[in-house]
Amino acid sequence: MTESQATMTAEPVHAADHVDHYDPLGAKIGMWLFLFTEVLLFGAMFIAFAVYLRQYRIEFMGGSRELDRYLGLLNTAVLLTSSLTMAFAVAAMARGQTRRAIGALAATLLFGAVFLVVKAREWGYKFSHGIYPQSETMLDRPVGEQVFYGLYFAMTGLHALHVIIGMAIIVSAAALILRRRIRPDRHIYLENTGLYWHLVDIIWIFLFPLFYLIG
Amino acid sequence: MAGISTTLSAPLPNYLEAKPGILSWVTTTDHKRIALLYLGGMSFFFFFAMSLAVTFRLELLFPGMQFLSHDIYNRLLTLHGVVMIFLFIIPGIPAVFGNFFLPILIGAHDVAFPRLNLLSWYCYMAGAALAVVSILSGGGPDTGWTFYVPYSVKTGQNVFWPILAAFILGWSSILTGLNFVTTVHRLRDKAMGWFQMPLFVWSLYATGWVQIIATPVVGITLVMVLLERFFGIPIFDPARGGDPLLYEHLFWIYSHPAVYIMILPAMGVVSEIIPTFSRKHIFGYKFIAYSSVAIAAIGSLVWAHHMFTSGMSDIARIVFSFLTFLVAVPSAVKVFNWIATMYKGAIRLDPPMIWALMFIVLFSIGGLTGMIVASLSLDVHLHDTSFVVAHFHYTMFGGTAVIFIAALHYWWPKMFGRMYRVRPAKQAVWLFFIGFNMTYMPLFIAGAFGMPRRYADYLPEYTVFHQLSTIGSWVMVAALLLAFYNLVHSLFRGERAPEDPWGGATLEWRTPTPPPVLNFTGAPDLSRGPYEYPEDVAQ
Questions:
Q1: What are the contacts of A113-117 at 24+ separation with CB within 8 A?
Q2: In a 3-state reduction of DSSP, which class is residue B304?
Q3: What architecture (CATH level 2) is domain A24-212?
Q4: Where are the domains of chain A?
Q5: What is the C-alpha separation between B268 and B42, in angstroms, rounded?
Q6: Is the peptide bond before B452 cis (omega within 30 degrees of 0)?
């Protein structure tokens, strides 16, 4: 069975000598299950947020007012746009427009980098005002605000880590496109990369209002 | 998909001999070889954790401290729990027997993601190495395997390594679950519908979902403990405004479903062994299949029964108590169906069958005492006593570990192509039965009389129970050594095993022993259902 025949069908196909089959639907099921675990991973943190929001309502609102909601809004726009360019990349690849796909991936990377720079500025700004865990300024504040900032650093930090991982995967996808390992008829890797990136985006969509807009 | 299109006249090389060399093993993507890699690691850690338990059990032979300090005792206890739970019982049956037989049972050549499968094994070994290093690093953890805050945030001992180990092992577990769920959906033979799958496959499928749903929660919860410990981020510590009860919830949201990750595959194996040795179609196939899913679903909603004395509201406690009772229903469905399967069957008492029958006895004791601790009023008395220790050893050890050994005896001839000696195998079962009950039955009684769990010392009134238990542990270890010696011995001296030594009806018995690299010599033969035996007169 030739390579192209194997890739045309959605059914898993086995080569006779080794178990290398191309099953895009299987790969997609696997990816969705993985994304499900990521949602649950953040889900536990959102539960913690919900519990403490109820317990320390006033302090959480106070903490939220101190965050720069314009920078948060900017980052939301940046990340949403990056999801759009990611979707462009997948659509271009499916139509065989390799150069456009690479271009769209580069744009996605750029937006990801902008997001991280803005995030780093925000963190740096807080640090310079002595707002970080266990700092003297922090310990003088009510415990509710300490918990708020604890969750803020933990959750946006974990999210930023996911942005970095997502960017690394995008770089690897671009490399695979250049080496023709991802092709128009065999681009599930790129599609799964897109799914991961959209997940990172969606998590931010929940982080933004919960931290920046409850004040 | 038509299987292998080429027909070969020469016999295919079996998976053990296909490629020689250590390197070919540690880079293999063959699900059967990966299963054996797991088996090697798991056997080692099982005996390692067992020797820890034998050591602190010996300490408990007399009241007062004999040869261990309190600190060392706490660390041995913690490491015993961490290694047994994370390195043996949770991955045990899926990683070894699921890996080896899931693809064969559904007529596939491998799992859906073979390379991911190998990655799972490396995650497992990395996590295992970290867990063992943690005790050798001097300040071994002393928190118990549950890592309860605030103690786990404050203790001077090293909790970083074991928590990191648990986190990495969690990923190993998730990847395996994800792999199996996708495999069942995508690689099942076209001719095999959902209700023609062997029940072991059903149980692995349900387990895969529990692994996917529950594990990430404990993963991130443990990461939050580390964030709190090393960066001072206030999350759980009450002194910093956190809520320790929240930790317990998040921990048990995973760790209770985890006991179903442990027991469901074992129940699946029992559903294979009992019909094979009764020569009878499984009774109530659909009920057993659905009960696996029901256990997975209800079992995800009972976690807070570990926290009846932690200070929850009465309503929460009543709801969780009720749900806990509810989970007994699908469990009992399975037990009744196994017994109904044996009714009027042509029962053969081969070693795997005796292990499986012993499972039914021990697991029923474990399950029914579970109902006792699920009762709110009784649990207030029994919580944190050795009654609970006896209860979960009856379910986990008498349940899952016993079936791990049963599965080894059931599938050993197929996996290695060698037949072990039957007589010592049977002797080991009876010796184990005596030793097991002697070890844990006294702990029920001592616990009901108020003996706290985890203590390094006890009042003289409890001496007789502890001495019975300690002596029982020696008998049990002797039985396990005999069983494993007998198995390993067969690798060198055993007779060659036939294709189908037990007269089983599932697909693995209709492929050469040991199986070829791609599992089947031709297209898998699905003309016969998984529980259709020629001797079965009822059909």
A1: A113/A167, A114/A78, A115/A75, A115/A78, A115/A79, A115/A82, A115/A163, A116/A160, A116/A163, A116/A164
A2: helix
A3: Up-down Bundle (1.20)
A4: 24-212
A5: 20
A6: no
What whole-number distance in Å separates Cα of residue B43 and Cα of residue B484? 9
The Cα–Cα gap between B384 and B388 comes to 7
Tell whether the torsion through CA atoms of A151, A154, A160 and A163 is positive or negative: negative
Kindly report the pTM of this predicted structure.
0.92
Instruction: Name every chain B residue with its beta carbon within 8 A of the beta carbon of A26.
Output: 112, 182, 185-187
- Write the CA distances from B293 to A141, B35, B49, B184, B289, integer angstroms: 49, 25, 31, 15, 7
Residue B5 pLDDT greater than 80, yes or no: no
One-letter-per-residue 3-state SS of B170-183:
HHHHHHHHHHHHHH
Q: In chain B, which residues have their Cβ closer than 8 Å to the Cβ of A43?
A: 216-217
Question: Residue A90: beta bridge partners?
Answer: none
Whether residue B181 and residue A33 make contact (CB cut-off 8 A), yes or no, is: yes
> In the structure, how many helices (H) and strands (E) does chain A have?
8, 0
Bridge partners, residue B263, by sequence: none
Q: How far apart are CA A157 and CA A162, in angstroms?
A: 9
Spatial contact of B492 and B420, defined as CB atoms under 8 Å apart:
no
Neighbours of A177 (CB within 10 A): 21
Structure tokens that stand for B2 in this block? 């038509």
Mutate to test the interface with A, among B1, B4, B5, B186 (most CBs of A within 10 A): B186
Contact B243 A133 (CB under 8 A): no
Nearest Cα to Cα of residue B225 among A140, A210, A45, A203:
A45
Q: What angle do CA B220, B306, B140 make, to 5 degrees?
A: 55
What is the sign, positive or negative, of the torsion defined by CA atoms of B376, B257, B436, B434?
A: positive
Measured distance CA(B366)–CA(B392) in Å, rounded: 7
Q: Quick count: other Cβ atoms within 10 Å of Cβ B401?
A: 24
Name residues 233-292 of chain B within 8 A of A (Cβ): 233-235, 240-243, 246, 250, 253
Contact with chain A for residue B231, Cβ under 8 A: yes
Instruction: Copy the structure tokens of residue B265.
Output: 């595959």
In this complex, do A151 and B186 lie within 8 Å of one another by their Cβ atoms? no
Question: Stretch B91-109: mean pLDDT, rounded?
Answer: 95
As a whole number of angstroms, the distance between CA B379 and CA B389 comes to 13
pLDDT band at A215 (very low <50, low <70, confident <90, very high): confident
ipTM of the shown complex: 0.89
Q: Which two tokens stand for residue A51?
A: 């519990």
CA-based nearest distance B184→chain A, Å: 10
* pLDDT tens, residue by residue, B266-324: 999 999 999 999 999 999 999 999 998 899 899 989 999 999 988 889 999 999 999 99
Write the single-letter amino acid at A71. L
Alpha helices in B305-398 (DSSP H): 314-342, 351-374, 376-382, 386-392
Token reading at B32: 């059967």
Q: Domain B22-510: what homologous superfamily?
A: Cytochrome c oxidase-like, subunit I domain (1.20.210.10)
Interface of A with B in 19-58 (CB under 8 A): 19, 23, 25-26, 29-30, 33-34, 36-38, 40-45, 47-48, 51-52, 55-56
